[in-house]
Specification:
The protein is mainly beta. It folds into 3 domains: 224 residues, no CATH class; 85 residues, Immunoglobulin-like; 87 residues, Immunoglobulins (Immunoglobulin-like, Sandwich). Helices cover 14% and strands 36% of the residues. β17 and β18 form a beta hairpin. α1 packs across α4. It is globular.
Length: 416
């Protein structure tokens, strides 16, 4: 039997995978869409975060927002989880906050941004290899199970092995797999025979990362503010008086409406909503009871909002920030095999990544990481070898600060 490779990062991957697969939450309204074309049931406890491809306009839990931001949004019946439905934006989209298989597994593997599932393997990344023969006997904790795309245009899938139990003689008894699949992230424990049968369906491949840093390249979680595993693994105290439409501890774009839902769930009585930017009071709003206050902010900065209760005490404060993020494409557009630059500006947020993907080739996904020098210059160069496929492309500029990430998307056409 092959000698196991280094285990330190592997057990970190297990720990981080379980942050998302073992979290429990209970919807407070019956209008949160799930991937099955239905809704999560109000008052029903769920384990694991929702499955949803949020990349069109929503946010990935763990990469774009804290887990606690999702949990706060769950407790607000008027949050984006219950008022927004991303179904139709993409084939696998549903709730405004969620994960898919690639973002879930990339989070566990300590990446700064997800890799799409079909680009995990040795044909596209170094530091990883195919395990042959693939079986319970040859599997290790931290290995990746890849399901190739189903013809003609079906999606691919990745799972991560998070546990192997053995008999005293070393024989594999059970294999634990964690994955993001509809409707929530889930855990499955299979016997060795069941695991082998699972591998045989759709010609799955078993991958082993032999060098995590080589496989990740510059895409390392420790180089960014997110994922923040310490915050995600902590138990948050969710505000019972006041929550934002996007939860709590969350970034907003400049001029984007912010909805404050004064809920007063314990019936203490509310008198005033106080909004502050730093230590400065922005507005004090008199209250007659629970209700929604809507505001937008033109000044970037870190904000808080709290309620003064009728007995003079102060509620827990919600925290959010207001940021500016924008960029422009070159006037001449993009030509195949030629480099180009984008110019950007930001406020209260550092630009970290320019993410490009082709609308005609599902394998053409690229990250261009923004350096400190790029940020000083307000430009980032897109190398010539990235845009090699003609047709429609997307480019997302991604920024982050201590509350999360925001993105700005522009579409362009690459011509010869």
């Amino acid at each position: 039997m092959e000698k196991p490779t280094s285990t330190a990062w592997r057990y970190k991957a297990v720990e981080y995978a379980r942050i998302m697969s073992e979290v429990t939450w209970t919807p407070v309204a019956g209008t949160m869409p799930n991937r099955n074309g239905k809704y999560f049931e109000k008052g029903t406890a769920y384990t694991g975060v929702p499955y949803s491809s949020v990349k069109s306009v929503g946010r990935y839990i763990g990469f774009d927002i804290f887990l606690k931001t999702f949990l706060a949004a769950v407790e607000n019946p008027l949050s984006v989880l219950y008022t927004e439905d991303l179904a139709g934006e993409l084939a696998n989209a549903a709730a405004y906050y969620g994960k898919v298989c690639s973002s879930y597994t990339s989070y566990a593997l300590q990446c700064g941004i997800w890799y799409v599932s079909r680009l995990y393997g040795p044909d596209y990344r170094a530091g990883i290899r195919l395990v042959s023969p693939p079986s319970a006997r040859t599997a290790e904790v931290g290995d990746i199970i890849f399901t190739p795309p189903a013809p003609p245009s079906g999606g691919s899938h990745v799972e991560i092995i998070t546990g192997i139990t053995r008999a005293p003689d070393g024989t594999v008894m059970h294999v634990r797999i964690d994955e993001s699949s509809p409707p929530t992230t889930k855990t499955t424990i299979r016997s060795a025979a069941e695991f082998n049968a699972h591998l045989a369906v759709r010609d799955k491949e078993l991958y082993r990362i032999t060098d995590l840093n080589t496989w990740r390249g510059d895409n390392r979680a420790e180089s960014f503010l997110f994922p923040n595993y310490e915050e995600d693994s902590a138990t948050p105290t969710i505000n019972r008086v006041l929550l934002l439409d996007r939860g709590d501890w969350v970034p907003y774009h400049k001029h984007q409406p912010v909805e404050f839902n004064v809920m007063d769930r314990d019936g203490q009585g509310v008198k005033t909503l106080v909004i502050k930017r730093g230590d400065a009071v922005v507005e004090q709003i008199g209250l007659d009871g629970p209700g929604v206050i809507k505001r937008s902010f033109s000044v970037c900065g870190d904000y808080t909002a709290h309620c003064v209760m009728k007995d003079g005490s102060l509620s827990q404060a919600c925290e959010f920030c207001v940021c500016d993020l924008d960029f422009g494409m070159p006037a001449k557009g993009a030509r195949l095999g030629q480099p180009f630059e984008i110019s950007f500006n930001s406020a209260n947020m550092d630009v970290i990544i320019a993410y490009l993907n082709s609308g005609v080739n599902s394998y053409a996904h690229y990250n261009v990481f923004v350096s400190e020098e790029d940020r000083r210059n307000g430009t980032v160069a897109i190398p010539a070898e990235i845009v090699w496929e003609p047709g429609d492309w997307q480019i997302w500029l991604i920024g982050e600060n201590r509350y999360g990430r925001l993105k700005k998307r522009r579409d362009f056409t690459a011509v010869e």
